Amino acid sequence: MGLAEPGLPLDTAIVTKLEEAIGWARESSLWPMIFGTACCAIEFMSVAASKYDISRFGAEVVRFSPRQADLLIVAGTVTYKQGPILKQIYDQMSEPKWVISMGACASSGGFYDNYSTMQGIDKIIPVDLYVGGCPPRPEALLDALLTLQADVKTNKYNPDRHKDFKGLLDNV
Amino acid sequence: MSNYITIAIENLHVFIEEKFAEGFSYLLDITAIDYSEYIEAQEEEFAIVYIIRHKDFKQILVIKSYLAALEVQSITDIFSGADWLEREVYDQYGIKFKGHKNLRRVLNHCAFVGHPLRKSYPITKGQLSLCVDDLQDEMNNRLLGKSVVCKLEDGSFSDCSKDLMFLNLGPSHPASHGTIRTYLALDGETIEAAVIEIGYLHRGFEKSCENHTYNQIIPYTDRLNYCSAISNNIAFAKTVEDMLGVTLHPRGQAIRVLLLELSRIEDHLVCLAAILVDMGAMTNYWYMYNPRETIYELLSKLTGARLTNSYMRIGGMTNDLHEEFESDLNNALLKVKEGVDETLSLIKHNRIFHDRTQNIGIITPKDAINASLTGPNLRASGVAYDMRKDSPYYGYENYEFDVAVGSVGDVYDRIMVRFEEIKQSTSIINQVMKTMPEGEINVKDASIVLPNKEAVYTTIEGVMNQFKLTYEGVKVPAGEYYGSIEATNGELGFFIVSDGSGTPYKVKVKAPSFTAISAYADMIEGFQLADAVLTLGSLNIIAGEMDR
Ligand code: SF4
Q1: To the nearest whole angstrom, how far is the Cα of B112 from the nearest Cα of chain A?
Q2: pLDDT digits over A15-38, tens only?
Q3: Ligand 1 mean position to B316 CA, how many Å?
């Protein structure tokens, strides 16, 4: 019987592992911070608007302050000029935190293989989920969110998972 | 009507001044050409190009000068809009401008070494940025102009005579609509001076054009003004078609007009939705954004993509209108009307809305022209310049519509002009649908348009044709050409240099948002911090188009 089981009498006492209780609580209270830079950010607007409505999945409290957010969604192209800014924002978020890279550009530089475009944000910050598409359809981003939530719920994410990550802007 | 002339560099400044006096007072663009890899050797390796419109908005002058030395007299004393355009040429080509007061990079980051649009700069050579420009010296110079600081003998600046607070709005800020940095000197809530930094979304569009064929560039154009992708497709395709000397069949033209106007609606919807959110009027976001979803559905059916449609091709478009197009369109237009009406009913007579927008962020008609504003932003200042009327193409002269103009040039006018343009565009679309001609959507020319699939699968000519066009691209006659249309944000132009191959030698975008943001600092000084947010929103800056 899970924590989210409907229909339990209100005076039921539940015994569970602390870890599970935390995972359950975190799952539907992700606060995303949108680092929207380009076309993909316009598709994020659709995800937030009524038709796709991200609030159905408990992730609608969009923050623009990294200190108040635990899910960084990078939506759009990240250039070398933006690199230090993105890194600073990531560093300012407190643990636990997750990163979704939305779209071809954020994931790999997309079709901008040139002098100004960073060839994927994972060159500077660790990424947990990549969403393909240019831009991804809103359903694809929602799917990524659901995937992430399922893993957050089971505490699949090891807090030390990025311990060895070293980006281009680390220690330079 | 465009006129191309070459002038000796020593006469250039005087010539531009004379032309200015003759009425060529609306600067469109400044760029340079690096001829070092051009098919035939030119007088000099570099040339500088000025594109200027006459104040009758009909004639265009394209002035070129070959450069023996990489230094040119600045024309910022004639056009205020030249300021950032010259900075861009400096940044991208390393050409210096004598007399320019703030010649620093504008698109590339401060640690960047070299000038990427030079042919000698490798396309994929990226450079890490480790620093952030503190912009303090630029800020001091601006404050100097307002006598808030003085310059000391050793060249440093004195302390501020006012108790200023310095604040960064952006680059990552919800109200910056993308990544734009506004560095402010505040006295209380009042903006004493502002310095703007852009280039955060400079993703090398122009350089990338130099290793892609013309049709491969279409998807890149989608991502200039990504709120209305198709209008960029059309501007680019039309310019190349003009260079090829081909004209679309009336049906192709009518479909382009229709989609241009639909793009305009789509673009204005998102601009208005966003600015109303910035104002705290959240409800309107749903009213304005949901019709956009209906347009997305229509475009998905037509083009296969919601946002980045890549629907146009050189010489036409990918496919004809789908079967239920008309009913889908009518449904979308109905939703747009409902959304607009509902929003207007909430704001039109709303005191808060009026107080927040009227007499805020004003730019006079004279300044707007001198700063090269264009489109709804220029019209809001009362200048009735609209290419669809002044130099019509695709049969715009046959449709009845009004040009919406403002009277004050404030945030309110820029918003209301867009509301009115949505109505006018709807009317144009209805007229187009009523008179939609039958016929071909593509030009009949095997050297431009891909053969149909049946020919490819069953005939050797078809295979060859497909292969050659795909690999080599559409061959455009050698030459230099500027073409533009009235896109959603105003005059969107492309200056293309062709060497006769299937890949452009050089492409320069005349981007409406770029000149708009260069006028932004002057527009917000003296107003309050919260007004800056609305002024930025009302200019509809789209980073993809501004930074390219
Ligand atoms: S992935 Fe495509 S849609 Fe997204 S930001 Fe990059 S170019 Fe734009």
Answers
A1: 9
A2: 888 888 888 888 888 899 988 888
A3: 24
pLDDT band at B241 (very low <50, low <70, confident <90, very high): very high
Instruction: Name the domain boundary from B98, B119, B151.
Output: B98
The reply to whether B162 and B249 lie within a common domain is no
Instruction: Provide the domain count of chain B.
Output: 3
Is any atom of ligand 1 closer than 6 Å to the C-beta of A104?
Answer: yes
Tokens representing residue B93 in the block: 């080509």
Which amino acid type is present at position B326? E
Please state the pTM of the whole predicted model: 0.89
| ipTM for the whole predicted complex goes beyond 0.90 | no
- pLDDT above 90 for B138: no
Greatest Cα pair distance, chain A, in angstroms, is 63
Asked, for residue A37, whether it belongs to a domain, the answer is: yes
* A7 occurs within a structural domain: no
Cβ separation B123–A84 shorter than 8 A: no
A35 strand-pairing partners = A74
A interface with B, Cβ–Cβ below 8 Å: 35-39, 41-43, 45-46, 49-51, 64, 76-77, 79-85, 89, 105, 111-119, 134-135, 137, 168-169, 172
Ligand 1 pocket check for A131: Cβ under 6 Å: no
Q: How many residues does chain A have?
A: 172
Name the β-bridge partners of B5.
B63
Mark yes or no for CB contact A42/B172 under 8 Å. Answer: no
Cis, bond preceding A135 (omega within 30 deg of 0): yes
B367, B519 Cβ separation under 8 angstroms: yes
A105 lines ligand 1 (CB under 6 A): yes
Contact call for A82 and B200, based on CB within 8 A: yes
Report chain B residues whose CB lies below 8 A from the CB of A111.
208, 219-220
One domain, residues B451 and B388 = yes
Give me the domain span that covers residue A86.
18-153
- If you measure from the C-alpha of residue B474 to the centroid of ligand 1, how many angstroms do you get, rounded to a whole number? 26
Range of the domain at B187: 136-197
